[in-house]
Amino acid sequence: MPELPEVETIRIALRQGGRNGPALRGRTILSARLLWEGSLAEPSPAEFLDRIRRQRFEDFTRRGKFIVAQLTRDTLLIHLRMSGDLRVEPACDEQGQSLAPAEHDRVVLYCDDNLRLAFNDTRKFGRMWLTSDPQRVLGRLGPEPLAEDFNAEEFYRRLQKKHRQLKPLLLDQNFLAGLGNIYTDEALHLAGIHPCQISDQLTSDQTRRLWQAIREVLQSGIRHNGASIDWVYRGGNFQNTFRVYGRAGKPCPVCGHPIERRLVGQRGTHFCPVCQPAVYNVSSEV
What we know:
Elements: H1 4-16, E1 29-34, E2 40-42, H2 45-51, E3 57-63, E4 66-71, E5 75-79, E6 84-90, E7 105-111, E8 115-121, E9 127-131, H3 135-138, H4 152-160, H5 166-171, H6 181-191, H7 204-223, E10 260-264, E11 267-271
Parallel strand pairs: 2-9
Antiparallel strand pairs: 1-7, 3-4, 4-5, 5-9, 6-8, 7-8, 10-11
């Protein structure tokens, strides 16, 4: 579930402190535990455990939905996927006894100053990469929607090169990095565009509205520390401002018509048929 605003909130907490934990920037990794080896995409478990020791967290950045931890020699990439989360917490109690990992902790990094970083992932979809070449993993991602050089004109050019429904296209991380189900539905409603609209049929005015809406809902999500809608992600309150997502049958905040939910590209999609009118017969596209 974590999308760009949730991942960005976690990144900020790792870098500056927050979410009930101190910052990890500047801390040195003393050792690591792999509680489920499947969480590690690369390298091998033995190499990971040996190579990550004595590396320091130099900085934390983000690329799409990836947390990018810059280490002394390598880069640690973390993708939370459906149910991943990260906690920074004490490694030992006041008596110096090691604290047991929590249920569903998959990887634990033990740092100096009695701190540990725990990667918790109930559904086991999340992954970590320890690599000297992060672009090998990140290189195919599309542009960052909040980047200064990603303007409406560039967005229009990219949309015109595709002939796809907007909802699945915006979820395609190779087209645009960071959007997921929640923020795509919210942005399309704010822009007044149907989720089944074909990308190369958008006008330049529609494109600018959608570009602005994407940036607006993502920035609002970051200000609200993301959205907490179930047990997966904790601490956000953007869910209190949802326009359409998860509100099927409830009145549209703009026109009052009931919000509809249907499958688009095999993903549950929420929209208002009045504020987001179809410009063609979309029945065969759903």
